[in-house]
Design brief:
Layout (H helix, E strand, L loop, with lengths): L1 H16 L12 H32 L5 H13 L3 H21 L4 H15 L17
Length: 139
């Protein structure tokens, strides 16, 4: 049920932000727009899975100082899927940081560093830049 609600909301957002409906555009096929929207949704779902996998690995590793690495890795993996994955990574990262900044008590500096690692991964930067020494190779 939640999946269908998310798909309906995403479709509404995508349609509302479009220049003109694909059916109106001259020389374009409406199915092409639907296919592109489908790819976007598929990439977004895959990106959300990538972000969740990085979060699970971070919790499992429980390694001090590794959070920036997992932030960068999750965003990197999600963004490699395409525009939908990058969008999902940005939305999830921003929501997480907005929520954590009010709850964690680690301060603005930690939030800024997390967002830097998020952006680095989304831009295609190597997540190993943030990898702490001694983190098991499994991750």
């Amino acid at each position: 049920m939640r999946l269908w609600v998310c798909i309906a909301l995403l479709s509404t957002i995508l349609c509302a932000s479009a220049d003109r409906p694909a059916i109106v555009r001259a020389g374009r096929n409406a199915w092409g727009a639907a296919v592109r929207a489908g790819h976007f949704v598929r990439d977004a779902a895959g990106g959300a899975r990538d972000m969740f996998r990085a979060y699970k690995d971070m919790r499992e590793a429980n390694y001090k100082g590794a959070d920036k690495y997992f932030h960068a890795r999750g965003n990197y993996d999600a963004a490699r899927r395409g525009p939908g994955g990058a969008w999902a990574a940005r939305v999830i990262s921003d929501a997480r940081e907005n929520w954590q900044s009010g709850v964690s008590g680690r301060g603005a500096e930690d939030t800024r560093a997390d967002q830097e690692a998020n952006a680095w991964g989304r831009r295609g930067g190597d997540p190993n830049r943030y990898r702490p020494a001694g983190l098991p190779r499994k991750y």
